[in-house]
Write a structure and sequence with these properties.
ten-stranded mixed β-sheet; alpha+beta; 399 residues; two-stranded antiparallel sheet
Length: 399
Protein backbone atom coordinates (compact mmCIF):
# COMPACT_ATOMS: atom_id res chain seq x y z
CA UNK A 1 0.00 0.00 0.00
CA UNK A 2 1.28 3.45 -0.86
CA UNK A 3 1.17 6.46 1.41
CA UNK A 4 -2.39 7.77 1.41
CA UNK A 5 -1.39 11.07 3.04
CA UNK A 6 -4.51 10.65 5.17
CA UNK A 7 -4.30 10.79 8.93
CA UNK A 8 -6.87 10.77 11.68
CA UNK A 9 -6.46 12.67 14.93
CA UNK A 10 -6.32 10.96 18.30
CA UNK A 11 -8.41 13.37 20.35
CA UNK A 12 -8.39 11.41 23.59
CA UNK A 13 -7.02 8.33 25.31
CA UNK A 14 -7.86 6.64 28.59
CA UNK A 15 -7.13 3.54 30.62
CA UNK A 16 -8.27 1.58 33.65
CA UNK A 17 -5.36 0.43 35.86
CA UNK A 18 -4.40 -3.18 35.19
CA UNK A 19 -4.39 -5.91 37.80
CA UNK A 20 -6.67 -8.61 39.14
CA UNK A 21 -9.69 -6.66 40.30
CA UNK A 22 -12.38 -9.36 40.16
CA UNK A 23 -14.90 -7.17 38.34
CA UNK A 24 -16.83 -7.49 35.10
CA UNK A 25 -14.89 -6.38 32.01
CA UNK A 26 -17.58 -3.80 31.27
CA UNK A 27 -16.65 -1.91 34.44
CA UNK A 28 -13.09 -1.52 33.20
CA UNK A 29 -14.14 -0.57 29.68
CA UNK A 30 -16.57 2.11 30.81
CA UNK A 31 -13.90 3.61 33.09
CA UNK A 32 -11.40 3.78 30.20
CA UNK A 33 -14.01 5.13 27.78
CA UNK A 34 -15.05 7.93 30.11
CA UNK A 35 -11.42 8.83 30.71
CA UNK A 36 -10.77 8.99 26.95
CA UNK A 37 -13.86 11.12 26.34
CA UNK A 38 -12.83 13.50 29.13
CA UNK A 39 -9.30 13.68 27.74
CA UNK A 40 -10.70 14.49 24.31
CA UNK A 41 -13.19 17.06 25.57
CA UNK A 42 -15.95 15.19 23.75
CA UNK A 43 -19.42 14.38 25.05
CA UNK A 44 -20.67 10.80 24.85
CA UNK A 45 -23.69 12.11 22.94
CA UNK A 46 -21.33 13.31 20.17
CA UNK A 47 -19.95 9.81 19.57
CA UNK A 48 -21.49 8.40 16.40
CA UNK A 49 -19.49 5.17 16.16
CA UNK A 50 -18.23 2.77 18.82
CA UNK A 51 -16.02 -0.24 18.24
CA UNK A 52 -15.52 -2.81 20.98
CA UNK A 53 -12.68 -5.28 21.20
CA UNK A 54 -14.20 -8.72 21.64
CA UNK A 55 -13.29 -10.73 24.75
CA UNK A 56 -14.22 -14.35 24.22
CA UNK A 57 -13.97 -15.37 27.86
CA UNK A 58 -16.74 -13.09 29.08
CA UNK A 59 -19.89 -14.56 27.61
CA UNK A 60 -22.32 -12.97 25.20
CA UNK A 61 -21.50 -9.47 26.42
CA UNK A 62 -17.88 -10.05 25.39
CA UNK A 63 -18.79 -11.38 21.97
CA UNK A 64 -20.80 -8.24 21.15
CA UNK A 65 -18.51 -5.82 22.96
CA UNK A 66 -19.37 -2.80 20.79
CA UNK A 67 -23.03 -2.86 21.74
CA UNK A 68 -22.20 -3.91 25.30
CA UNK A 69 -20.16 -0.76 25.85
CA UNK A 70 -22.70 1.41 24.01
CA UNK A 71 -25.42 0.13 26.32
CA UNK A 72 -23.32 0.59 29.45
CA UNK A 73 -22.48 4.17 28.51
CA UNK A 74 -26.13 4.86 27.65
CA UNK A 75 -27.73 4.23 24.29
CA UNK A 76 -27.13 7.29 22.14
CA UNK A 77 -28.01 6.00 18.68
CA UNK A 78 -24.36 5.45 17.64
CA UNK A 79 -23.50 2.76 15.14
CA UNK A 80 -21.52 -0.14 16.59
CA UNK A 81 -19.02 -2.79 15.55
CA UNK A 82 -17.06 -5.50 17.32
CA UNK A 83 -13.58 -6.68 16.33
CA UNK A 84 -11.57 -9.74 17.23
CA UNK A 85 -7.99 -10.51 16.24
CA UNK A 86 -6.61 -12.11 19.41
CA UNK A 87 -3.78 -9.92 20.75
CA UNK A 88 -4.08 -7.60 17.73
CA UNK A 89 -7.76 -6.92 18.49
CA UNK A 90 -7.29 -3.32 19.63
CA UNK A 91 -5.45 -2.31 16.47
CA UNK A 92 -8.02 -3.98 14.25
CA UNK A 93 -10.80 -2.16 16.13
CA UNK A 94 -8.90 1.10 15.73
CA UNK A 95 -8.54 0.47 12.00
CA UNK A 96 -12.27 -0.16 11.69
CA UNK A 97 -13.02 3.18 13.32
CA UNK A 98 -10.41 5.02 11.29
CA UNK A 99 -11.77 3.64 8.02
CA UNK A 100 -15.28 4.88 8.73
CA UNK A 101 -14.01 8.39 9.50
CA UNK A 102 -11.85 8.42 6.38
CA UNK A 103 -14.88 7.35 4.36
CA UNK A 104 -16.76 10.40 5.63
CA UNK A 105 -19.33 8.26 7.42
CA UNK A 106 -18.36 9.20 10.97
CA UNK A 107 -17.01 12.19 12.86
CA UNK A 108 -16.34 10.82 16.36
CA UNK A 109 -15.40 7.20 17.02
CA UNK A 110 -14.78 5.60 20.39
CA UNK A 111 -12.70 2.41 20.47
CA UNK A 112 -12.70 0.33 23.66
CA UNK A 113 -10.95 -2.87 24.68
CA UNK A 114 -11.35 -4.50 28.09
CA UNK A 115 -10.82 -7.94 29.60
CA UNK A 116 -11.29 -10.00 32.73
CA UNK A 117 -8.86 -12.91 32.58
CA UNK A 118 -8.58 -16.27 34.34
CA UNK A 119 -5.75 -17.24 36.65
CA UNK A 120 -2.78 -18.82 34.92
CA UNK A 121 -1.93 -18.87 31.22
CA UNK A 122 -4.59 -18.35 28.58
CA UNK A 123 -6.05 -21.47 27.01
CA UNK A 124 -8.87 -22.33 24.60
CA UNK A 125 -12.45 -22.75 25.73
CA UNK A 126 -13.44 -26.22 26.89
CA UNK A 127 -14.76 -28.87 24.52
CA UNK A 128 -13.62 -31.23 21.74
CA UNK A 129 -12.89 -29.04 18.71
CA UNK A 130 -10.48 -30.87 16.42
CA UNK A 131 -10.90 -28.31 13.63
CA UNK A 132 -9.87 -25.44 15.92
CA UNK A 133 -6.10 -24.89 15.47
CA UNK A 134 -5.79 -23.12 18.79
CA UNK A 135 -7.42 -26.03 20.65
CA UNK A 136 -5.53 -28.53 18.50
CA UNK A 137 -2.08 -27.28 19.54
CA UNK A 138 -2.89 -27.81 23.21
CA UNK A 139 -4.36 -31.29 22.70
CA UNK A 140 -1.83 -32.70 20.24
CA UNK A 141 1.39 -30.98 21.25
CA UNK A 142 0.76 -29.60 24.72
CA UNK A 143 1.83 -26.30 23.18
CA UNK A 144 0.95 -23.67 25.75
CA UNK A 145 1.86 -20.06 25.05
CA UNK A 146 4.98 -20.23 27.27
CA UNK A 147 6.10 -23.31 25.34
CA UNK A 148 5.85 -21.36 22.11
CA UNK A 149 7.67 -18.38 23.59
CA UNK A 150 10.46 -20.73 24.66
CA UNK A 151 10.90 -22.06 21.12
CA UNK A 152 11.47 -18.51 19.90
CA UNK A 153 13.85 -17.79 22.77
CA UNK A 154 15.88 -20.90 21.98
CA UNK A 155 15.94 -19.83 18.34
CA UNK A 156 17.52 -16.50 19.31
CA UNK A 157 20.11 -18.30 21.39
CA UNK A 158 21.01 -20.66 18.55
CA UNK A 159 21.05 -18.06 15.77
CA UNK A 160 22.43 -14.96 17.48
CA UNK A 161 24.10 -16.07 20.68
CA UNK A 162 21.50 -14.56 22.99
CA UNK A 163 21.77 -15.60 26.62
CA UNK A 164 19.36 -16.02 29.49
CA UNK A 165 21.06 -12.98 31.03
CA UNK A 166 20.06 -10.95 27.96
CA UNK A 167 16.45 -12.01 28.36
CA UNK A 168 16.60 -11.11 32.05
CA UNK A 169 17.96 -7.66 31.17
CA UNK A 170 14.82 -7.00 29.10
CA UNK A 171 12.72 -7.65 32.20
CA UNK A 172 15.00 -5.43 34.31
CA UNK A 173 14.67 -2.60 31.78
CA UNK A 174 10.90 -2.83 31.46
CA UNK A 175 10.40 -3.10 35.21
CA UNK A 176 12.44 0.07 35.63
CA UNK A 177 10.35 1.84 32.96
CA UNK A 178 7.09 0.78 34.58
CA UNK A 179 7.93 2.17 38.01
CA UNK A 180 6.31 5.53 37.21
CA UNK A 181 3.36 4.22 35.20
CA UNK A 182 0.20 4.62 37.28
CA UNK A 183 -1.70 2.11 35.14
CA UNK A 184 0.85 -0.73 35.43
CA UNK A 185 0.08 -3.75 37.59
CA UNK A 186 3.66 -4.59 38.55
CA UNK A 187 5.65 -1.59 39.77
CA UNK A 188 8.87 -2.73 41.34
CA UNK A 189 12.49 -3.03 40.28
CA UNK A 190 13.97 -6.46 39.65
CA UNK A 191 17.53 -7.66 39.15
CA UNK A 192 19.00 -10.11 36.68
CA UNK A 193 19.65 -12.51 39.56
CA UNK A 194 16.01 -12.32 40.62
CA UNK A 195 14.84 -13.15 37.10
CA UNK A 196 17.29 -16.03 36.75
CA UNK A 197 16.38 -17.25 40.22
CA UNK A 198 12.66 -17.44 39.44
CA UNK A 199 11.30 -20.88 38.46
CA UNK A 200 11.85 -22.21 34.95
CA UNK A 201 8.49 -22.26 33.16
CA UNK A 202 9.63 -23.48 29.75
CA UNK A 203 13.36 -23.67 29.20
CA UNK A 204 15.11 -21.25 28.71
CA UNK A 205 12.42 -18.89 30.05
CA UNK A 206 11.86 -18.22 33.74
CA UNK A 207 8.67 -17.09 35.42
CA UNK A 208 9.76 -13.44 35.37
CA UNK A 209 10.52 -13.68 31.63
CA UNK A 210 6.82 -14.25 30.88
CA UNK A 211 3.95 -11.80 31.25
CA UNK A 212 0.99 -12.57 33.47
CA UNK A 213 -2.71 -12.44 32.60
CA UNK A 214 -4.47 -9.31 33.82
CA UNK A 215 -7.73 -7.42 33.97
CA UNK A 216 -7.56 -4.04 32.31
CA UNK A 217 -8.93 -1.65 29.70
CA UNK A 218 -7.90 1.05 27.26
CA UNK A 219 -9.85 3.41 25.02
CA UNK A 220 -9.13 5.84 22.20
CA UNK A 221 -11.26 8.62 20.72
CA UNK A 222 -10.73 9.38 17.04
CA UNK A 223 -12.20 12.45 15.33
CA UNK A 224 -12.48 13.81 11.83
CA UNK A 225 -10.55 16.91 10.89
CA UNK A 226 -13.75 18.88 10.39
CA UNK A 227 -15.16 17.97 13.82
CA UNK A 228 -11.87 18.76 15.54
CA UNK A 229 -11.64 22.15 13.87
CA UNK A 230 -15.25 23.03 14.65
CA UNK A 231 -14.87 22.15 18.35
CA UNK A 232 -11.29 23.33 18.85
CA UNK A 233 -9.96 19.91 19.87
CA UNK A 234 -6.31 18.98 20.38
CA UNK A 235 -5.23 17.12 17.26
CA UNK A 236 -1.47 17.22 17.72
CA UNK A 237 -1.15 13.41 17.66
CA UNK A 238 -2.36 11.56 14.59
CA UNK A 239 -2.54 7.99 13.36
CA UNK A 240 -0.32 7.80 10.30
CA UNK A 241 -0.68 4.10 9.58
CA UNK A 242 -2.28 0.88 10.78
CA UNK A 243 -1.02 -2.42 9.41
CA UNK A 244 -3.01 -5.64 9.83
CA UNK A 245 -1.42 -7.71 7.07
CA UNK A 246 -1.60 -11.51 7.00
CA UNK A 247 1.17 -14.02 6.17
CA UNK A 248 2.16 -14.81 2.60
CA UNK A 249 2.60 -18.41 1.45
CA UNK A 250 4.98 -20.06 2.07
CA UNK A 251 5.36 -19.06 5.71
CA UNK A 252 8.69 -20.64 6.60
CA UNK A 253 8.98 -19.44 10.20
CA UNK A 254 6.70 -21.13 12.72
CA UNK A 255 3.85 -18.90 13.90
CA UNK A 256 1.45 -19.96 16.62
CA UNK A 257 -0.95 -21.75 16.53
CA UNK A 258 0.47 -23.57 13.51
CA UNK A 259 2.40 -26.74 14.35
CA UNK A 260 4.46 -26.74 11.16
CA UNK A 261 5.73 -24.33 8.54
CA UNK A 262 4.57 -24.23 4.92
CA UNK A 263 6.51 -26.30 2.34
CA UNK A 264 8.71 -24.16 0.14
CA UNK A 265 9.34 -26.56 -2.76
CA UNK A 266 7.13 -25.24 -5.55
CA UNK A 267 6.96 -21.64 -4.31
CA UNK A 268 10.01 -19.77 -3.08
CA UNK A 269 9.69 -17.81 0.18
CA UNK A 270 9.36 -14.07 -0.08
CA UNK A 271 11.94 -11.62 1.16
CA UNK A 272 10.02 -10.85 4.35
CA UNK A 273 8.84 -13.02 7.19
CA UNK A 274 5.27 -12.49 8.38
CA UNK A 275 6.31 -10.37 11.35
CA UNK A 276 8.66 -8.27 9.21
CA UNK A 277 5.86 -7.62 6.72
CA UNK A 278 3.66 -6.12 9.45
CA UNK A 279 6.07 -3.29 10.16
CA UNK A 280 7.07 -2.76 6.53
CA UNK A 281 3.43 -2.24 5.53
CA UNK A 282 3.04 0.35 8.28
CA UNK A 283 6.16 2.25 7.22
CA UNK A 284 5.01 2.28 3.60
CA UNK A 285 1.57 3.60 4.49
CA UNK A 286 3.00 6.30 6.75
CA UNK A 287 5.66 7.25 4.24
CA UNK A 288 8.47 7.00 6.78
CA UNK A 289 11.41 4.72 7.51
CA UNK A 290 12.51 2.93 10.70
CA UNK A 291 15.12 5.63 11.25
CA UNK A 292 12.31 8.14 11.80
CA UNK A 293 10.97 6.26 14.85
CA UNK A 294 11.67 7.80 18.26
CA UNK A 295 9.90 5.31 20.52
CA UNK A 296 8.37 1.83 20.24
CA UNK A 297 5.81 -0.17 22.20
CA UNK A 298 6.18 -3.82 21.26
CA UNK A 299 4.62 -7.14 22.18
CA UNK A 300 6.74 -8.51 25.03
CA UNK A 301 4.70 -11.56 26.00
CA UNK A 302 8.15 -12.90 26.77
CA UNK A 303 11.42 -11.06 27.19
CA UNK A 304 12.92 -12.82 24.18
CA UNK A 305 9.99 -11.81 21.95
CA UNK A 306 10.76 -8.13 22.60
CA UNK A 307 14.19 -8.66 21.06
CA UNK A 308 12.62 -10.32 18.02
CA UNK A 309 10.20 -7.43 17.50
CA UNK A 310 12.97 -4.84 17.62
CA UNK A 311 14.45 -6.58 14.58
CA UNK A 312 11.11 -7.34 12.91
CA UNK A 313 10.36 -3.60 12.97
CA UNK A 314 13.81 -2.98 11.45
CA UNK A 315 14.89 -0.80 14.34
CA UNK A 316 18.19 -2.68 14.01
CA UNK A 317 19.63 -5.43 11.82
CA UNK A 318 19.10 -9.14 12.45
CA UNK A 319 21.00 -10.41 15.46
CA UNK A 320 21.74 -6.93 16.81
CA UNK A 321 18.90 -6.44 19.31
CA UNK A 322 21.08 -7.74 22.14
CA UNK A 323 23.75 -5.22 21.17
CA UNK A 324 21.25 -2.38 21.55
CA UNK A 325 19.98 -3.80 24.83
CA UNK A 326 23.45 -4.20 26.36
CA UNK A 327 24.40 -0.65 25.33
CA UNK A 328 21.28 0.78 26.98
CA UNK A 329 19.94 2.00 23.64
CA UNK A 330 16.48 0.49 24.22
CA UNK A 331 16.15 2.20 27.61
CA UNK A 332 14.62 5.63 28.15
CA UNK A 333 17.40 8.04 27.27
CA UNK A 334 18.84 5.63 24.71
CA UNK A 335 18.77 5.75 20.91
CA UNK A 336 15.45 3.93 20.49
CA UNK A 337 13.53 3.44 23.76
CA UNK A 338 11.37 0.30 23.68
CA UNK A 339 8.38 -0.19 25.98
CA UNK A 340 8.72 2.97 28.09
CA UNK A 341 5.32 2.04 29.54
CA UNK A 342 6.89 -1.04 31.09
CA UNK A 343 5.29 -3.25 28.45
CA UNK A 344 3.29 -6.38 29.12
CA UNK A 345 6.01 -7.29 31.61
CA UNK A 346 4.50 -4.64 33.89
CA UNK A 347 0.90 -4.73 32.70
CA UNK A 348 0.13 -8.37 31.99
CA UNK A 349 -2.10 -9.59 29.20
CA UNK A 350 -5.63 -8.19 28.76
CA UNK A 351 -6.09 -9.28 25.17
CA UNK A 352 -8.58 -6.79 23.60
CA UNK A 353 -6.97 -3.86 25.41
CA UNK A 354 -3.24 -4.24 24.92
CA UNK A 355 -2.86 -2.88 21.38
CA UNK A 356 -4.95 0.13 22.43
CA UNK A 357 -2.88 0.55 25.60
CA UNK A 358 0.21 0.86 23.40
CA UNK A 359 -1.46 3.66 21.42
CA UNK A 360 -2.43 5.38 24.68
CA UNK A 361 1.19 5.27 25.85
CA UNK A 362 2.54 6.62 22.56
CA UNK A 363 -0.03 9.41 22.62
CA UNK A 364 1.10 10.45 26.09
CA UNK A 365 4.73 10.21 24.99
CA UNK A 366 4.20 12.39 21.93
CA UNK A 367 2.25 14.94 23.97
CA UNK A 368 5.02 15.03 26.57
CA UNK A 369 2.63 13.74 29.27
CA UNK A 370 4.41 10.49 30.23
CA UNK A 371 5.52 11.76 33.63
CA UNK A 372 8.49 9.87 35.06
CA UNK A 373 9.04 7.83 31.91
CA UNK A 374 9.10 10.50 29.21
CA UNK A 375 11.09 9.97 26.02
CA UNK A 376 12.29 13.50 25.40
CA UNK A 377 11.42 14.99 22.02
CA UNK A 378 9.43 11.97 20.82
CA UNK A 379 7.54 12.77 17.62
CA UNK A 380 7.05 9.36 15.96
CA UNK A 381 6.07 6.12 17.66
CA UNK A 382 5.33 2.60 16.47
CA UNK A 383 3.59 -0.41 17.99
CA UNK A 384 3.69 -4.13 17.25
CA UNK A 385 1.36 -6.96 18.21
CA UNK A 386 0.74 -10.48 17.02
CA UNK A 387 -2.44 -12.49 17.39
CA UNK A 388 -3.18 -16.11 16.63
CA UNK A 389 -3.77 -17.54 13.19
CA UNK A 390 -2.29 -14.88 10.94
CA UNK A 391 -3.25 -11.79 12.91
CA UNK A 392 -0.72 -9.07 13.50
CA UNK A 393 -0.69 -5.32 13.79
CA UNK A 394 1.44 -2.24 13.81
CA UNK A 395 0.26 1.32 14.45
CA UNK A 396 2.32 4.41 13.69
CA UNK A 397 1.44 7.66 15.45
CA UNK A 398 3.12 11.00 14.92
CA UNK A 399 2.85 14.68 15.74
Amino acid sequence: MTNSNSSIAIAGVGMHPWGKWGKNFVTYGVHAARAALKDAGVDWTDVDYIVGGETVRNGYGGYVAGSTFASALGWNGARVATSYAACATGAQALDTARARILAGLSDVALVVGADTTPKGFLKPNAGERWDDPDWFRFRVMGMTNPGYFALYARRRMDLYGATQEDFAQVKVKNARHGLENPYARYRGEVTVDKVLGSPIVSDPLHLLDICATSDGAAAVVLVSEAFAKKHGLNTDVKIKAISTVTPTFPNTVLDMPQISTDPAVAVQPGELTFKESIGVAAYEEAGISPSDVDVAEVYDLSTALELDWIEDLRLCDRGEAEVLLRAGDTSIGGKIPVNPSGGLACFGEAVPAQALAQVCELTWQLRGQATGRQVEGARVGITANQGLFGHGSSVIVAR
